[in-house]
Every structure is written in C-alpha cells, then in structure tokens.
Amino acid sequence: MPLSKQILRVLGFLAFGVLVVPFFAQARAASRGDAYLGYVRTGSDIFYPNTPGLNGWDLDGEVITHRYLGVEGDIGHYGIGAGSTVPRTTSVLFGPKVSAGPGGFKFFGHFLIGGEHSANSANPGHISGGAFAYALGAGVDVPIMPILAWRVQLDRLSAPSQSPSNATNIRFTTGIAVHF
Hints:
Elements: H1 3-19, H2 21-24, E1 33-42, E2 55-64, E3 69-79, E4 88-100, E5 106-119, E6 128-143, E7 148-158, E8 170-179
Antiparallel strand pairs: 1-2, 1-8, 2-3, 3-4, 4-5, 5-6, 6-7, 7-8
C-alpha cells in the first residue's frame, strides 16, 4: 500500500476518534480543554520584506488549568504556493489563554510566545532563518453541536527581529474547535 494511502487512513482514523467517539462518551459539565484545526491568513511582509499575505493552516490545543485560565500550544504553517521558491514559515507558540462565555459561546484572549522558521530556495531573495515570535489576540468559539464549535480568531503576530516596520502583523484564523 502506498505511503500516501496509509497516511490518509491514519488521518481518517484520527478524525473519527476526535469527532465521533466523544459523542458516545459521558457528557461532562465543564470543558477540560479544546483542540482546533483551521485555515489561516496572514498580512503582508509579516516575517520578511517583500512577501505577500500567506495562507496556511493552524493547529492548537488548550488544557484548562483553572476555571477561566488555560495553557495553549499553537502550531501554524504559512505559505503562498507549492513551489520551492516561495516562502514558507512555521511558527510554534505557547502561552496563557483566558476564556469565558455564556450558553456555549466561548470568548477568549491569549498571549503566546515561541519561534518561527522561514525558508525558500529563491535566487535572489533566498530566505532561511528563524526568530523569536509572539501572538497577541482574541477570538470566539460559536457552538455548532455539544462538543463542536466554529472558531474565529484575530491575532497580532510578529517576529520582532525579522518583521519589517511596515509589515501588516495580522493573523486571521477560522475553523473547527473540539471541546473535551
């Protein structure tokens, strides 16, 4: 069996486990955390000069430590195409997340710190490097089903030593959050 089919089967099994199995588990009164996967769009020149806005995916998870406070980890991958000459950036961030909300709605804010790595193989204009990065933002989870929510989030994302002063340091994400 080709490797790509094996990967698709594993991803399908994981998706089934995350999305279907919890419906059969006993309901809990309070959420202990969440997992999120969604689309991301960044502003122009966010990590390096002369790069347009980047598209990609964002994966994060939160473990709630107190009633309104949790710890969040966030991995984002951004790019503008499939060729090896276009810039790609991966960010890995961690930090506190504060959340509250009525009737299943979850409003949150977070401050995440970590790093980013960008690369391409364009000549001239070759990019390869990493830097400290941070994200400061807020969002909302709108309930769809008992454990599923649609997330909309807006952050100021920056790598201060890399980001040009005229950068549009915006990161917009939207997708599905699973609360457990």
